[in-house]
């Protein structure tokens, strides 16, 4: 197992290298010269050249790329142009709300979507099936911020059941923390539920047509046992795959959801950085999110071997 | 044996029956096997079999008409400011109310259809063309495949919205730049799809036969590979169109999209952001139109997919 993990980790190196190259090019090609900003209006051309040399910005692309990569590997993501705070520190301050939002969304989306998909497949063609599929089409069509505003308008503004906006740190109690996350997580989870339910249904339909399912039914097993023990277990691989792929949706959606619900997380940090053209922060966040996405999918690849012993790497 | 069997022309039964002896048994005339087709019946059957696709098509046609006829259906100039008429509720004068600057939301929503459709269709066309070209090269040339796929893997591991947002941070907000940014973010997925299709097509006997009989590689691609990869491509293109419309709205909504003066659905919502708790209608109307349009495109896409692939249609 350890060997597999190491081999798969090595395989992610070229992927992350491409990501790093993209992200570095972003800063390299960014319009506006940081040196003239630092030097100010009064600086002479000689001063500008001197600052450029001290910062190492006069060196060729590849040298700077190597230098930058080396610093990234040491955990240095640079400093925000706007606030002068190291990017790693900014990220550390903002990571908790985003992590909470993602984990709650993940948990609740899977808890809702998988049973929905199973129910739809078990009753294929029925009203239940049709409504689940209709919900799935709707989930793909209604943009995340529309869901967010409608939910917030109904449940927070009109009914007053839940807090409208903001985030309560988990240190201040689980109750308030959770209350603040219900609406954002439902918002973010909507499209994710649609995606997982749809794939669960398709995978289950495939499995339910297999001979061993008929055997299990024929020998008199309870329908529920057949559905959940025999079928779902064997339909798990595509379901887990789409859960992993959907994390990209979740990351994109988090940026928007945090804007709608005024959550001070990484998504909001990204939006603020874009509005201020704070390139080191944009770089850091894109790099971080991509690394998370790659590592999550690596973890899911490894999970395959547990779910389906036939899969070997 | 009684003479009960009389060969006769269909429809002649009544004549025979009238003159036949009373004990003669005659079978009822056969019904016509193929009932005559009615044009109306065909349309009804289409609706019955693909209700989603028809609804989607009609919705899309309505939005398309709205975009084309915007100058005639819009009641006022969508960019006209009227400081005395700010954040009005919907009324007979301003059907959807007015925004923070007193602009008429109904007119802005009508014109917003243009932005969404232009961006959706352009991204779908450009991303499909680029993805098709790269995917064909990758699927047909072993040597290029490794490099292209590594790059595609890398770019795909950046969440698409984030990539589009990062690209927009490099340039000014304009419709063209938004199209390019979303297209770049969508290309890897199309490339993957086309490459997969090409790889499986290459194993087909008819492709082998073409190669063995000395067909030039370019002709094989043009005659056999390309036409057969167009079907999955078309389905993918409609989904890209839908997701590009959402992406544009998201970019504009967070302030990294088309310039704020352009009436786009994302922009109208971005402007309503500050006041959404008190003036929910500013966000509500563009939200409804955006959702319906994306829904329409998705339904049409599902319809095309069902028509092209009956097996997939049953499962997913």
Task: Report on this structure.
The complex is a heterodimer of chains A (313) and B (316). Chain A is an all-alpha fold. Chain A has two domains: 20-73, no CATH class; 87-307, MetI-like fold. Chain A is built from 14 helices and no strands. The termini of chain A are close together. The mean pLDDT of chain A is 82. Chain B has 13 helices and no strands. Chain B has 316 residues and is an all-alpha fold. Chain B has one domain (55-312): MetI-like (MetI-like fold, Orthogonal Bundle), CATH 1.10.3720.10. In chain B, helix 3 packs across helix 12 (280-308) and helix 5 packs antiparallel against helix 10. Chain B has helices at residues 13-19, 39-49, 51-68, 70-73, 105-140, 142-156, 160-168, 175-202, 205-212, 217-253, 265-272, 280-308, 310-315. The chains are: A mainly alpha (313), B mainly alpha (316). The interface between A and B is large, with 56 and 46 residues. Chain B: InterPro entries: BP-dependent_transpt_permease, MetI-like, MetI-like_sf, OppC_N. Chain B: Pfam families: BPD_transp_1, OppC_N. Chain B: This is D,D-dipeptide transport system permease protein DdpC.
**Residue share in helix of chain A:** over 70%
Helix count of chain A, per DSSP? 14
User: What is the global morphology of chain A?
Assistant: globular
* CATH C-level label of the largest domain in chain A: Mainly Alpha
Distance between the termini of chain A: 10 Å
| Percent helix of chain B | 55-70%
CATH 2nd-level architecture of the largest domain in chain A: Orthogonal Bundle
Global shape of chain B: flat
State the CATH class of chain B. Answer: Mainly Alpha
CATH arch. level architecture of chain B: Orthogonal Bundle
Main sheet overview of chain A? none
CATH H-level homologous superfamily name of chain B? MetI-like
Integer tally of domains of chain A? 2
How large is the radius of gyration of chain A? 24 Å
The unreliable regions of chain B are 310-316
Could you please say which CATH topology of chain B applies here?
A: MetI-like fold
Overall pLDDT score of chain A: 82
């Amino acid at each position: 197992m350890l060997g597999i993990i190491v081999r798969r980790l090595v395989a992610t190196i070229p992927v992350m290298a491409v990501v790093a190259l993209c992200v570095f090019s972003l800063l390299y090609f960014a319009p506006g010269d940081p040196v003239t900003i630092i030097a100010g209006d009064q600086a002479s051309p000689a001063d500008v050249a001197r600052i450029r040399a001290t910062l190492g910005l006069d060196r060729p692309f590849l040298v700077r790329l190597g230098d930058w990569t080396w610093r990234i590997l040491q955990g240095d993501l640079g400093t925000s142009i706007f606030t002068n705070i190291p990017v790693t520190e900014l990220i550390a301050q903002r990571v908790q709300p985003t992590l909470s939002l993602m984990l709650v969304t993940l948990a609740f989306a899977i808890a809702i979507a998988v049973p929905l998909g199973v129910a739809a497949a078990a009753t294929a063609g029925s009203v239940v099936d049709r409504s689940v599929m209709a919900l799935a089409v709707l989930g793909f069509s209604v943009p995340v911020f529309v869901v967010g505003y409608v939910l917030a308008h109904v449940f927070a503004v009109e009914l007053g059941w839940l807090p409208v906006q903001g985030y309560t740190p988990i240190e201040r109690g689980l109750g308030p923390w959770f209350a603040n996350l219900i609406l954002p997580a439902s918002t973010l989870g909507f499209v994710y539920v649609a995606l997982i339910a749809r794939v669960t249904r398709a995978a289950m339909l495939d499995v339910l047509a297999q001979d061993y399912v008929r055997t299990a039914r024929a020998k008199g097993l309870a329908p529920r046992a057949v559905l959940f023990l025999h079928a779902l277990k064997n339909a798990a691989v595509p379901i887990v795959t789409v859960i992993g792929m959907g994390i990209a949706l979740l990351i994109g959606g988090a940026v928007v959801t945090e804007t709608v619900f005024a959550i001070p997380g990484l998504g909001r940090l990204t939006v603020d950085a874009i509005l201020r053209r704070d390139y080191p922060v944009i770089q850091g966040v894109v790099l971080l999110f991509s690394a998370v996405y790659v590592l999550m999918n690596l973890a899911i690849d490894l999970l395959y071997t547990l779910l389906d012993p036939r899969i070997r790497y | 044996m009684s003479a009960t069997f009389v060969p006769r022309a269909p429809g002649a039964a009544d004549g025979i029956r009238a003159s036949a002896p009373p004990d003669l048994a005659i079978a009822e005339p056969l019904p016509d096997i193929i009932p005559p087709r009615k044009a109306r019946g065909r349309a009804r059957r289409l609706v019955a079999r693909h209700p989603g696709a028809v609804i989607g098509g009609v919705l899309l046609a309505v939005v398309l008409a709205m975009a084309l006829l915007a100058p005639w259906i819009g009641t006022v100039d969508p960019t006209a400011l009227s400081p005395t008429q700010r954040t009005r509720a919907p009324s007979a004068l301003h059907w959807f109310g007015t925004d923070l600057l007193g602009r008429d939301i109904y007119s802005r929503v009508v014109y917003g259809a243009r932005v969404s459709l232009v961006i959706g269709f352009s991204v779908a066309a450009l991303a499909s063309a680029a993805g098709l070209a790269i995917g064909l090269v990758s699927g047909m040339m072993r040597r290029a495949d490794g490099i292209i796929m590594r790059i595609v893997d890398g770019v795909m591991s950046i969440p698409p919205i984030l990539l589009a947002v990062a690209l927009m941070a490099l340039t000014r907000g304009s419709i063209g730049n938004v199209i390019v940014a979303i297209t770049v973010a969508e290309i890897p997925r199309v490339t993957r799809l086309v490459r997969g299709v090409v790889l499986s097509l290459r194993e087909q006997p008819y492709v082998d036969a073409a190669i063995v009989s000395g067909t030039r590689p370019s002709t094989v691609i043009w005659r056999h590979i390309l036409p057969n990869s167009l079907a999955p491509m078309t389905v993918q293109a409609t989904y890209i169109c839908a997701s590009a419309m959402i992406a544009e709205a998201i970019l504009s909504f967070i302030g990294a999209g088309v310039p704020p003066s352009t009436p786009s659905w994302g922009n109208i919502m971005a402007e309503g952001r500050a006041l959404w708790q008190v003036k929910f209608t500013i966000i509500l109307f563009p939200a409804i139109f955006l959702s319906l349009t994306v829904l329409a495109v998705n339904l049409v896409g599902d319809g095309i997919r069902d028509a092209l692939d009956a097996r997939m249609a049953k499962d997913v």
